[in-house]
Amino acid sequence: MRDRRKPPAHINHERWLVSYADFVTLLFAFFVVLYASAQIDKQRAVKLSDAIDSAFQQLGIFQKDNHKPGPVDPRISLPTAVNGGQDLSRWAPEGHEQLGSGYNKKDFNAIRSELERALAAEIRRNEVALHMEPDGLVVSLREAGFFDSGSASIKPGSEAAFARVAKILQEHSCAVRIEGHTDNVPIHTTQFASNWELSTARATGLVKSLVEQHGISATRLSAAGYAEFHPAADNGTAQGRQLNRRVDVVILSKN
Fold it and tell me: pLDDT tens for residues 176-195?
């Protein structure tokens, strides 16, 4: 009688290759997608970097050359600025103590003495303060003496004092940066939506006055609004907030 039993099926020991090939194909596709995404992000980053560099050049924060700004120190916050070509070295990291190569200590001592004599009455009334910073001599015009609260226009009674400052600036060739500062109390008026607008308007208003009324070259001047983010005193007290509401005239150590 014929044997109807089927022969044992052949066992394929290489079936794992199919699954392995599928896995390798998927892994290849995954890395292709990652590579493509990385290339897109790189292109976007380059475009973003070029756009930021172009914007800063238009504002005058960086000179128009092939220099690319390096990594930004996280301790430094960038201000809203209208700048005439000066750097922002005043807000350098702690430990930066050396002034630029164009700094002449004897010259700055002479300028400080002139300002102290010209503003003696305002200094006695604590309306003006002078001090040195790493990048130059700072003349702080405090709000109490020079501006009404929430206003960007200098008080009529303080125009003579500012004119004395302008006269001394006319006699020296140093570059000057005007910085607006506020306390941390929010402001929202029909004219100013925030402290950024108020601080910037005060700074640019004084720059305009120096150019139009006192004949100082606009190429020497720059303006910046820092709002409440660079306080001179503690905002936790009324006295500290009063000191923080100011416009600083920074006579820079290098042009």
Answer: 999 999 999 999 889 999 99
* CA–CA distance, 186 with 196 (Å, rounded to integer): 10
Q: What angle do CA 234, 235, 241 make, to 5 degrees?
A: 105
7: left (phi over 0), alpha (psi -120 to 50) or beta: beta
CA distance 203 to 248: 8
Q: For residue 5, is it within any domain?
A: no
Alpha carbon distance 168, 190 (integer Å): 36
Which position has the token pair 């409440």?
Answer: 228
DSSP assignment, residue 132? E
| Domain that residue 63 falls in | 14-70
Fill in the amino acid letter for 46. V
Q: How far apart are CA 255 and CA 252, in angstroms?
A: 7
Is 1 inside a domain boundary?
A: no
Distance CA 43, CA 106 (A): 50
251 touches 111 (CB < 8 A): yes
What does pTM read for this prediction? 0.61
Tell me, what amino acid is at 39?
Q
